[in-house]
Amino acid sequence: MKTVSVPLSLQHAVMSTMQQKLEQASHFLQQSFPEPSINYQQRGTIAGSARLQDWEIRLNPILLIENQQAFINQVIPHELAHLLTYHQFGKVAPHGKEWRFIMETVLKVPASRTHQFSVHSVRSQIFIYCCYCQEHELTIRQHNKVLRGKSCYVCRQCGEKLTLLE
């Protein structure tokens, strides 16, 4: 796996925001929380993920570098909210009411399930499939499932089974 080096200034900005949001949560919830470890090894189109049992936040270094402050403002609180939700409520729905409460009431950040960053630079090979009404982009994982007969994709518009455009 090719590693991407995140500039120190960005790493400091990540840590600063994380510490500020952690302090905010500690004050609101009247308890202290350990500082999660941060690693920059998230791959693909996922901006970040929270490893609950490890108390770790994984960040996509490419999307961080490309989106900097917007990434920090959205992704850090989002992933921290997963950890805090797990700490406070145990195993619950990933983006359920408990997580939304932590995001909006505790961390004062809009609760958005997905990011809107461009993923062009981190997207793997795509395959064009078509139906009666349009073309669809499938990932290599989806394409391989079709080849192995494990999945069949259908257009949400016309209901037609997707076929590979050769």
UniProtKB/TrEMBL annotation:
User: Which SMART domains does this UniProt record tie to the protein?
Assistant: SprT (SM00731)
The residue ranges of the SprT-like domain are 16-165
Mind listing the UniProt keywords for this protein, alphabetically? Cytoplasm, Hydrolase, Metal-binding, Metalloprotease, Protease, Zinc
Q: Which GO terms describe its molecular function?
A: metallopeptidase activity
Q: Could you say which residues bind Zn(2+) here?
A: H78, H82
Bound how, and how many: what does the cofactor note say? Binds 1 zinc ion.
Family, similarity comment: Belongs to the SprT family.
Q: Which named protein is this? A: Protein SprT
Top-level taxonomy: Bacteria, Pseudomonadati, Pseudomonadota, Gammaproteobacteria, Enterobacterales
